[in-house]
Amino acid sequence: IPEELIESELFGHEKGSFTGATEKQIGKFELAHKGTIFLDEVGDMSLRTQAKVLRVLQEGEVERIGSQKTIQVDVRVIAATNKDLEEAIEKGQFREDLYFRLSVIPVPVPPLRERPEDIPPLVRHFVKQFSAENNFKPRTITPASVEALKRHAWRGNARELKNTIERLLIMVEGDEIRPEHLVDVLRRPAAAAETALPPSEAPGSLQDFKASAERAFLVQKLRESRWNISATATAIGTPRSNLYKKLEQYAISQEKDG
């Protein structure tokens, strides 16, 4: 939701409270009274919106934009994010008090590459779902193909797996999907991209090579610690402040290198 609209969406507004407010709107928190509201990508909220969400969680009340009337709400809040909120707190991008209010019962979800045993049932599910929705004849994905899928990095997690299965079902002719069909479909793992540079892109000097190797090492350690900055800094024996400098120096980010 665009920043200029998110407060209206969450808390509602009165008619005429701002340009374009041609009628009253009930906010999502008010609509969720006695129910559940799911806040996806909560780490992307502005600090202003975070303060208002914190008030809802602490006081159980909201005010529509343009109104001075307080409305009591009783909602169960489920929040999700792919960001390291503890790191965001250290950078001043996320309120610590809101983090503690949201993380009453945290449920960490490891990336798909760390739970390859989940891939075969997910593959069966996506094949069945896509075939039924599009009136496709179900295809068989050979055991060797499933093993290849289990070894893939899946940087896009389940969404990437779903899109891959859909593409295979559309593009592959015949009744079986075999390993050779995966070659042009699977994204090249980041690790392979880092270690198998073509000659034209290989480091041209010892300093370049050292920088490339250090970057690859840091990315690998960050992945192993699920992008927890504190845990990574401890694991490699460097101050957290130094690790932040390295991340900035090499333009390392979870979005790009996760």
Explain this structure:
By secondary structure, this protein is mainly α. It is built from 13 helices and eight strands. The protein has helices at residues 3-11, 28-31, 47-59, 85-90, 96-102, 119-134, 143-151, 157-171, 190-195, 206-224, 229-236, 240-249, 254-257; strands at 12-13, 25-26, 35-39, 61-62, 71-72, 75-79, 140-141, 176-177. The protein has a two-stranded antiparallel sheet. Helix 10 (206-224) packs across helix 11 (229-236). The radius of gyration is 24 Å and the shape is globular. The two termini are 24 Å apart. Mean pLDDT is 86; it is low at 189-201.
In short:
The protein is built from 13 helices and eight strands. It is mostly helical.
Radius of gyration: 24 Å
Give the H and E element order.
HEEHEHEEEHHHEHHEHHHHH
* Largest sheet, strands/sense/barrel: 2 strands, antiparallel
Structural class: mainly alpha
Number of helices: 13
* Through-space gap between termini: 24 Å
Taken as a percent bin, the fraction of beta residues is 5-15%
Helix content: 40-55%
Q: How are the strands of the biggest sheet laid out side by side?
A: 1-2
Overall mean pLDDT: 86
Number of strands: 8
Overall geometric form: globular
Low-confidence stretches: 189-201
Characteristic key phrases:
mainly alpha; 258 residues; globular; two-stranded parallel ribbon
